[in-house]
Amino acid sequence: MSGKLWGVGLGPGDPELVTVKAARIIGAADVIAFHSAKHGRSISRAIAAPYMREGQLEEHLVYPVTTETTDHPGGYQGAIDEFYETAAARLAEHLAAGRSVALLAAGDPLFYSSFQHMHRRLADHFDTEIIPGVTSVSAASAALGTPLVEGDQVLTVLPGTMPTDELTRRLREADGVAIMKLGRTYPGVRQALADSGRLADAYYVERASSTRQRVLRAADVDEASVPYFAITVVPGPKPATRITLTDSTSDASSTNSTLAAAGAAGTVDTNRRTASGADASQPTTARAATASDTGTPGAGAPAGDTAVTTTSTPGTDTSTVPVAPSTAADPAATTTSTTAAGTVAAHAVPATAAVTSAPAADTAGATTSTIVAGTVAALAVAASAGAAQGDSIGEVVVIGLGPGAAEWTTPEVTRALDEATDIVGYATYVNRVPERVGQRRHSSDNKVESERAAMALDLAKGGARVVVVSGGDPGVFAMAAAVVEESADPQWRDVPVRVLPGVTAASAVASRVGAPLGHDFAMISLSDRLKPWEVVAGRIAAVAAADMAFAVYNPASSQRTWQVAAMRDLVLEHRKPETPVVIGRDVGGPTESVRVVTLADLDPAEVDMRTLLIVGASTTTVFDAAGGPRVFTSRRYGD
To answer: Which of 313, 311, 410 lies closest to 364 in space, CA to CA?
Structure first.
């Protein structure tokens, strides 16, 4: 019996806007399918992450082109059509095998969505059901706080890709208008608004409903900074209430005036409720954060799990969502909030508060935040850090702790940790850093690198001295690349970024057996999360054919169990079966083990995510010595 295809609408970005039915189907499906551009960061995957469960199969459908050129013989359209056919065939294999497939779609599946292309190819062959989602048009209207149309007015939705003169004509004739697909089209869209006489009444909403939401007048937008996930709105009726603009100074009489915090995921929105008499300078609301623009979130917590715990100092006034029983040592000092399906709830957290996933030890002022289940949950900690530092810009230092042993952490890295106001990183590495008085700690799972980098840069922009923690060396399959890449965004141009090296896992494992990397060598990650397996396989074959020893990072995980065997078989096409392979697990840690086997005897069952492999070359030699086998790769080839 065939499986069922679900078109799952996720809404505009905030995981709390995912419908109850969509959340249920995401958690129940056998396969989660989602799209992304070549960078691998999937917004849909990030929104759905809190509702996913451990062990689900994932189909990452990567567009071959987005806006760039292509050498495909059919041009851009030919490349896209071929991609959709291939993607549909991949999903059809799962459906034919009896697996249910949840194909994720930001917004609504049948509203400018990639799902439509899969639907027309698969719906006639398999049982299909569509779960509608909140559209970005609705989210933009909510962000403005004003109706798009009323009475007999007609709402017109236009793509920004339309020719400027055609946009101009339609704008002149329309009542309320929403213009989608902006990005590089924005200069033409603004010209059409001006030519039609609608520019003065037009508003721009970026990443509606997320923590990176921005609301501006359309005339004030920097054309070079417009992302695809933005929308221009011209309300039909004259707004009856003041529309709050981001990064603008509203007068004190405005109703529900909001300063929306722009920038990285994890930045907190604060409301200035002057109409109700609240102190306009005090933060009153923090929006639930989302892992926008990412294909790298975690599996998520099941429904009902505790998503966030807020910890505040005694005597602070903390407003929260409904409180669950506290498990902290001092109940009077801690409030715990629980939200469904791991979604991070909105909190009003004072500057002294912290966000944590478990009761923390008394560290005399140290605070902790946790980015839970792939959803960025920096909340008020990020905002309070910037406020505490004033207007000066801090810095981001990306460091490597080494593979595990404390003595492998360099003095330079230790000094940076001592001087930091904030520690940001994957929870496993953050937990290796001794807690220090006054430091804020922001932990996350290992699949939200882009959001983690953006949060660190945003903290530093507000004046914090941020250390981003990696294991091993930060420049080797770790956080340095993510931070440096994110720092290329113009909004971070003034934030200093330094990278401090660390001992690599490859060096540590090699040292335990001698010098297997003594000659030319390569480092390869077996993970196909950010690159297709075809690329990984091609690189393995090339390195094997070049007769270089190579270190294998990320060889396996709970959801990736076949790649080690595939790698072994590829290498055996170029290397002898007796080629030495070093298996190093938890080197420098309490459960360290190191073995040397032959390539033919490499057992994938011995390998997990805490393992690093070193595959020898033709000149790699093993001999028995005191304390066990010793391995070296000669720097000399025979005559």
So the answer is: 313
Closest by alpha carbon to 598, among 625, 629, 635, 560? Answer: 629
pLDDT digits (tens, 9 = 90+) for 322-362: 333 333 333 333 332 323 333 333 333 333 333 333 333 33
Cα 496 from chain centroid (whole Å): 22
The neighbouring-strand residues paired with 551 are: 523, 614
The residue assigned the tokens 């709830």 is 345
Neighbours of 559 (CB within 10 A): 12
| Tokens 């017109």 -> residue | 156
pLDDT tens figures, 288-331: 333 333 333 333 333 333 333 333 333 333 333 333 333 333 33
Which two tokens mark 266? Answer: 């994890």
With 0-12 / 13-18 / 19 or more C-beta atoms within 10 angstroms meaning exposed / middle / buried, residue 252 is exposed
Residue type, 196: S
Residue corresponding to tokens 């990984």: 536
**To the nearest 10°, the Cα dihedral for 426, 429, 435, 439?**
-40
The whole-angstrom separation of Cα 49 and Cα 95 is 22
| DSSP character at residue 41 | -
Spatial distance between the Cα atoms of 346 and 141, rounded to a whole number of angstroms = 20
Q: Please give the Cα distance from 623 to 29 (Å, whole number).
A: 51
The type of residue at 94 is H
- Partner residues linked to 356 by β-bridges: 309
Q: 368 pairs with which residues across the strands?
A: 441
Which H or E element spans position 624? strand 620-625
Buried b (16+ CB within 10 A) or exposed e, 327-362: ebeeeebbbbbbbbbbbbbbbbbbbbbbbbbebbee
Question: Which among 572, 555, 560 is positioned nearest to 614, based on CA atoms?
Answer: 555
Q: Is the pTM of this model over 0.70?
A: no
Q: Each residue of 8-63: pLDDT tens digit?
A: 999 999 999 999 999 999 999 999 999 988 777 788 999 999 999 988 999 999 88
Nearest to 26 by CA among 60, 3, 58, 61: 58
Q: What is the 8-class DSSP label of residue 267? A: P
The answer, yes or no, to whether residue 95 has pLDDT greater than 90, is yes
Structure tokens belonging to residue 350 = 């004072």
- At a CB cut-off of 8 Å and minimum separation 6, what does 330 contact? 314
Residue 177 vs residues 163, 180, 218, 242: alpha-carbon distances, Å: 16, 10, 13, 19
Q: Which of 388, 309, 387 is nearest to 347 (CA)?
A: 309
pLDDT tens track for 522-572: 999 998 777 888 899 999 999 999 999 999 998 987 667 788 999 999 999
Q: Are 350 and 312 in contact (CB under 8 A)?
A: yes
* Rounded distance between C-alpha atoms, residue 414 and residue 274, angstroms: 46
Q: Tell me the residue ranges of DSSP E strands in 422-557.
A: 422-426, 440-444, 465-470, 497-500, 514-515, 521-525, 549-553
Alpha carbons 6 and 22: distance in angstroms, whole number: 9
Query: How many alpha carbons fall within 13 Å on the CB side of residue 381?
Result: 34
CB crowding 599-632: b at 16 or more within 10 Å, else e: beebebeebeebbbbbbbbebbebeeeeeebbbb
